[in-house]
Amino acid sequence: MTFGKMTALAFGLVGGFALGVWTGPHLTQRAAPAANAVHEAVVAPSAPDAATAAVNDDAAKASAARPRAAARTARVDVTEPALHERLKPVLNRGANMAVAADGFRSAEEFATVAHAARNTQVPFMVLKHRVLDEGKSLAQAIRESKPTIDAANEASQARTQARSDIAAIAG
């Protein structure tokens, strides 16, 4: 091998290594959660005056008189066969419902993630992982997967559909 060929080979190897070092972090680095989070200013509330305190007391009494949302929502188990039959068309064909439902605390949470996956075209298992394993809200999980859509609206719509499913099963 001549000196020129050895030099070219050495420069090629060094150049390839340098290119890998330079581009590697950009290709493999996951976005840090803090970098993607929306930072909101936290404003400490000032001491309420007498008029505000009276309004707040009236609002507290009114909210205590109203039934809680949890009391209105029917209680359905995640393993309920009727729920699985209701959600089978929402999930991909051939989905194992026991695996899909595994890990959810409530049937409403399971149905909400299933409907959100269908509505946004994000794979169910991706949303499930982000909600259950990473501890994110459904809106955050949708926003990470599809940043161009209104994640809060999609999560709200999916929650409404899930509550409708649960009411149909329980009632």
Describe the structure in your own words:
The chain is mainly α. It has a domain at 71-170. The chain contains ten helices and no strands. The protein is elongated. The model is unreliable at 30-45 and 63-73 (pLDDT under 50).
Sequence-ordered SSE layout with sheet pairings:
Blueprint (H helix, E strand, L loop, with lengths): L2 H26 L4 H4 L13 H16 L3 H4 L8 H7 L9 H5 L5 H14 L3 H10 L4 H8 L5 H20 L1
| Model regions low in confidence, pLDDT < 50 over at least 5 residues | 30-45, 63-73
* Radius of gyration (Å): 26 Å
* Average pLDDT taken over every residue: 75
Termini separation: 84 Å
Features:
171 residues; mainly alpha; 0% strand; elongated
In short:
The protein is an all-alpha fold and 171 residues long. It has 10 helices and no strands.
